[in-house]
Amino acid sequence: MAYQVLARKYRPQRFADVVGQDHVTRTLGNALEQNRIAHGYIFSGHRGIGKTTIARILAMALNCRRTIGSPERPTFEPCGSCESCEEVRAGNAVDVIEIDAATNRGIDEIRELRDAARYRPARDRYKIYILDEAHQITDAAFNALLKTLEEPPDHVVFMMATTQPEDILQTIRSRCQHFSFHAVRFDAILEQLKTIAADEGVDAAEDALGLLAEAGDGSMRDALSIMDQAIASAPVEGGRSRLEAAPIRELMGTMPNAVFARLLEQVSENNAAAVLAELDRLLANGNSPSQIARQLVRYLRNVLMARIAGETTELLQLSPDERARAAATALLFGEEELTRFLQIMLRTFDELNYRQEPRFHLELGVLKLVHLQRLLPLEELLTQLGSRTAPAASPVSTPVTTPVSTPARAATAAKAAPPGLAGPPAASPFERDAQRRMPPAPTSPRPQPQPPQSQPTVAPEPIPLPPAHGGARETANPQPADAARRANAGTLVAEGSAPEPSPRPSLDLDGMRAAACAALESGGHTTAAALLGVARWTETPEAVRVEVAAKKTMLGLAMNSEAEKLVRAAVRPFAGQPPRPVEWIPAEGGSTKVAPPPPPGGSVQALALENPLVRQAQELFGAEVRSVVDLRGKR
């Protein structure tokens, strides 16, 4: 007999033999026991996880000649010994038609199927159609099958297996029972491989089987295919094949995770030269940049899962030895750093598919991991800046906790910190928020400080005395009352209350006016200089108001952005500390009407306004002189 590959030899023949799909087998078993058979099923999911296998087992169970509950068939499982079960297992059953929908996808083939479905089965109870890769069927062919699926004959059952259920028309999916298959867990694949290795007489190491299960990537068929290939290439000792991890890696063209653990260790040490040398050795051994990036991404993902959920989490699809290695690497970095690493390598892996120099892009991507170790987190930098600008004295101090960081990042932060920020690192705002949300630790009771008084103590009212000599009433002993008020004020200051602010000194408005006009004259803004020179400058606690005798439109044209910059720079020395901003307001829009005084004598603006023609134009047309250009001396 010809050799049969492991994927076919160990194909399940009963629902109980299917690995990792308990939710599907349990539902179908209950439906068989209760005789609740649907006319259409859709089995969807990852490749090699049992979709077509379960369709065949269900077909055997439906057409099995043994009755459920009989001695030959005590459960809903097919007996496997009757003629119908044997024919389905061999693939030559007359009433179980398995169609490759990838090649028979047109409307003509579906019309033939629809016409044949009207006739009753030749011998068995049901006529069953298994459509593999059903998403390949065209929309027109699906529409031709639609009426048959909606009102099928009692003897027809359709089963559609697909990896892309979203490509099947919604009208088809709504008429069928949809079962979504899960990817097989790593532990389930590993146990199945151990059982098969024992049945085949293969001595397999634990790490070798773990490598095969990891390469299966959730697919039992893929893992069995790789195992078949590994057994063929393994050495034979005493008539038994011996599976080791190193030959399997060489067979699959993969690298051990110890290489990537060493690479990330060099990244944590900020050793860019060692990282590039390690990449050069991997490339010199014949590994492609895309394969290196793919495995590094997978290893980073496992390290991140170990950092988040621990070494024993089910999120790690690894053998025990590989779990320990990933957990050791996770101790070198923080969760945020590993997240950034994974993001950078995913982007690098995508770029390698369409770049002309993949090696250069791989080296650049790995160097970015080293550079990330040399960066200070933004929250730490902001906290250090805040600690340098914070007030020196404070009555009540808040305990500060230094954030935990890796040794490499701490050493890099000490080197990369600016000279003005040297000193002990301050607490991160995120750490403070986490501490604030945590419940306080139980401590021994101790006296609590009394909060400062919110209102000053008011001295008792002076006692009025009877009027002397029939004149005005006098206050008894006014000096002690004033002394009491001053004493109370002093007490409040000592307890931490802020004293009343002293009045701010008056500004030199004339100096501000002169400086602003001089700056505008030197910058060529003569109109703006003339307007501010005759404007009314007033001082408020918040700003300096300049009321200009001009309309809003004219003021906007004269005081453009360049003129504003000149004025603000000129008046800054006169604006006090902290400086008060300057606001110019057209007098026509304010509450005060400012009469425009005559321009200063000798200026170009004054000469223009004194011109008889200009005055006549102003009287006749109500014109405004917005800007004056001095062309004297320019020939």
Strand order of the largest sheet: 2-3-4-1-5
How many domains? 4
Radius of gyration: 44 Å
Average pLDDT reading: 78
Strand content: 5-15%
- At the fourth level of CATH, the homologous superfamily of the largest domain is P-loop containing nucleotide triphosphate hydrolases
Features:
Zinc Finger, Delta Prime, domain 3; 635 residues; alpha/beta; Rossmann fold; Helicase, Ruva Protein, domain 3; elongated
Give a quick summary of the entry.
Helix 3 (51-63) runs antiparallel to helix 4 (83-90) and helix 22 packs across helix 25.
Describe this structure in words.
This protein is of the alpha/beta class and 635 residues long. It has four domains: 175 residues, 3-Layer(aba) Sandwich (Rossmann fold); 67 residues, Helicase, Ruva Protein, domain 3; 115 residues, Zinc Finger, Delta Prime, domain 3; 92 residues. Helix content is 48%, strand content 8%. It contains 27 helices and eleven strands. The protein has a five-stranded parallel sheet with strand order 2-3-4-1-5, with helices on one face. Strands 6-8-7 form a three-stranded mixed sheet. A three-stranded mixed sheet has the order 9-10-11, with helices on one face. Helix 9 packs parallel to helix 11. The protein is elongated and about 125 Å long. About 17% of the residues have low confidence.
